[in-house]
Amino acid sequence: MAIVGATVTFNGKAIGLKKEPLENARFIWNFGDGTTAVDEETPVHTYETINAVTVCLTAANDACADTICKDLFIKFTGL
C-alpha cells in the first residue's frame, strides 16, 4: 500500500541461475500509472491519485529477461 503524494522507493534485484547478481542487468520499471523508469535498480516514485495499480519490473541482460508484477493500492490519508 502507498499513500497519495508520498514518495515510494522500489527495490529491484536481478539474480542469475547460480543465485548470484546478474551481470550487466538492465532494469525497466512500469509503475502502473503511465510512468516508467529505465536503468534504475532502486527508483523512487510518487503516486498522485487514489488508485489500484500493477507495478512491473523487467530485469534483462544479453542472455535473458524476466518480468515480475505486483498489485499496489494507493490510498489517501489525512484530514
Walkthrough of the structure:
The protein has 79 residues and is mostly beta strands. The protein has no helices and seven strands. It has a five-stranded mixed sheet with strand order 1-7-6-3-4, with no helix packed on it. A two-stranded antiparallel sheet has the order 2-5. The chain is elongated, with a radius of gyration of 14 Å.
Contiguous uncertain segments of 5+ residues: none
Order of helices and strands: EEEEEEE
Please list the strands of the largest sheet in the order they lie side by side: 1-7-6-3-4
Q: What is the gyration radius calculated from CA atoms?
A: 14 Å
Strand content is over 45%
Give me the secondary-structure category.
mainly beta
Main beta sheet: 5 strands, mixed
Overall outline: elongated
Average pLDDT level = 91
The number of helices is 0
Strand element count: 7
Distance between the first and last residues' Cα: 19 Å
Helix content: under 10%
Q: Assembly state here?
A: single chain
